[in-house]
Design brief:
Blueprint lengths: L12 H5 L2 H10 L2 E4 L4 E4 L2 H9 L4 E2 L23 H9 L5 H5 L2 H12 L7 E3 H6 L2 H10 L6 H12 L10 H22 L7 H10 L5 H14 L2 H16 L1 H9 L4 H12 L4 E6 L3 E3 L2 E3 L4 E5 H4 L34 H18 L3 E3 L5 E2 L8 E3 L1 E4 L2
Parallel strand pairs: 2-8
Antiparallel strand pairs: 1-2, 3-5, 4-12, 5-8, 6-7, 9-12, 10-11
Helix pairs in contact: 6-17, 9-10, 10-12, 11-12, 13-15, 13-17
The structure holds protoporphyrin IX containing FE (HEM).
Length: about 400
């Protein structure tokens, strides 16, 4: 196989600018890639990633879903295999069904309008800092019952948890400090609740499960942690990526303007074409033979979801952004047992956010010189998307 000169290094900032050339070469030339420097493997084709997420017996999440080794063994849903995963997920999965989250639509819209109001007449907005970074955090804080005054602090901590310094394999110390700060905050919140009348929110449901002996205290804290992390960064990045792609593809924006009913399909296509979660890792429980290569037991394997989403073996003209495609089977929300718990919420937030943005902005243009990317081996998206628009 002629893959010696293909390199995939998710800690390299240059890859974050444009990973898609490398991704194509991985799919074509090295579908089972080994990164010798960091000693991990990567699967890049759609069928291989789908088979892996469905085979938790072989591709385990229990050693963590980052490439870096876990610094602390936190009891979180995303890092568990059955039967622990089944027990934990079942407890609150019912709170995140499309029907359950649909009732939040008015809340999301009111919040979106409040955030946009100061920018309406200005003709300019930073899609991320003025809007998309605030909306998902505000919603998840409401669902978790945290005061809105704490949103900025919580967002700073969660952003720090996912940030990685260039070329550095492990979570920086600031990330560890932010993780400890978040766990401390959640613990305090639960202690405060003990003396108050019961509330009707997710933490109350998790505390009831703890009282019934279905979750340990650490598992409750881990659950709140993963809900705060997963629901924040990724949805923010989806909204930013979508505004950027529509700016770069005026023909697609025109289609959407002409037929707003295409919005759900456009969201799925943005998830497929440039989704925020680039990859999640697994650890092999035994040797795996694939495409003529042998992945040893106990190896870290990156499942490159957004790379798989551009696999021409799966999608025709996969490198084209086509908002009519409606690819509901993309891997942007993962798949199998760990498929995103918050997918319906993310879809609702993205829909309302885009409806409100497109209603506010007439003609708009992203100021490309002002774009800034976040740097993370797993999440792709911007920290700044400055836009000018006509009313
Ligand atoms: C566009 C936004 C989002 C993206 C791209 C995204 C992506 C993903 C992906 C790829 C996974 C699978 C992880 C794996 O296979 O190891 C996942 C799992 C998860 N997501 Fe999301 N997510 C988003 C929004 C949300 C929101 C809003 C929430 C909050 C409620 C959330 C909560 C979770 C949780 C709890 C899991 C773990 C599920 C499990 O292990 O069973 N996500 N997400």
């Amino acid at each position: 196989m002629a893959h010696d000169d293909v390199n995939y290094d998710p800690f390299d900032y240059a890859l974050h600018d444009d990973p898609y050339q490398v991704y194509r070469r991985l799919r074509d030339e090295a579908p089972v890639f080994h990164n010798a420097r960091f000693d991990f493997w990567a699967l890049s084709r759609y069928d291989d990633c789908l088979a892996a997420v469905r085979n938790f017996g072989l591709f385990s999440s229990a050693q963590g879903t980052t490439l870096e080794p876990l610094k602390a063994q936190l009891p979180v849903l995303i890092n568990a295999d059955p039967p622990v995963h089944t027990r934990m997920r079942h407890l609150i999965a019912g709170l995140f069904t499309p029907a359950k989250v649909a009732v939040l639509e008015d809340n999301v819209r009111t919040l979106a309008r409040t955030l946009l109001a100061p920018h309406r007449d200005a003709g300019r907005i930073d899609i991320i800092t003025d809007f998309a970074a605030k909306l998902p955090m505000a919603i998840i804080c409401r669902l978790l019952g945290f005061p809105s005054a704490d949103e900025d602090k919580l967002r700073d901590w969660t952003d720090t948890v996912v940030h990685r310094d260039e070329g550095v394999f492990e979570m920086p110390d600031e990330g560890m400090h932010a993780t400890i700060a978040l766990f401390g905050y959640f613990d305090e919140d639960m202690k405060r609740r003990a003396g108050e009348p019961p509330r009707d929110d997710i933490i109350a449901a998790l505390m009831a499960a703890e009282a019934a002996g279905e979750l340990t205290h650490e598992e409750v804290l881990g659950y709140i942690f993963i809900l705060s992390i997963a629901g924040n960064e990724t949805t923010t990045k989806l909204i930013g990526n979508m505004v950027f792609q529509l700016h770069r593809h005026p023909d697609q924006l025109a289609l959407l303007r002409a037929d707003p009913a295409l919005l759900p399909s456009a969201i799925e296509e943005t998830m497929r074409f440039d989704g925020p979660t680039q990859m999640m890792a697994r650890t092999t429980t035994r040797e795996v033979e694939l495409h003529g290569r042998t992945i040893p037991a106990g190896a870290k394997v990156a499942l490159l979801f957004t790379c798989a989403n551009r696999d021409e073996r799966k999608y025709e003209h996969a490198e084209m952004y086509d908002i009519r495609r409606n690819p509901r089977d993309h891997l942007g929300f993962g798949g199998g047992l760990h498929a995103c718990l918050g997918a319906a919420l993310a879809r609702l937030e993205a829909k309302v956010a885009m409806e409100e943005l497109l209603a506010m902005m007439g003609d708009f243009a992203v100021d490309e010189a002002g774009l800034q990317r976040m740097h993370s081996p797993q999440v792709r998206g911007f920290t700044h998307v400055p836009v000018t628009f006509t009313a």
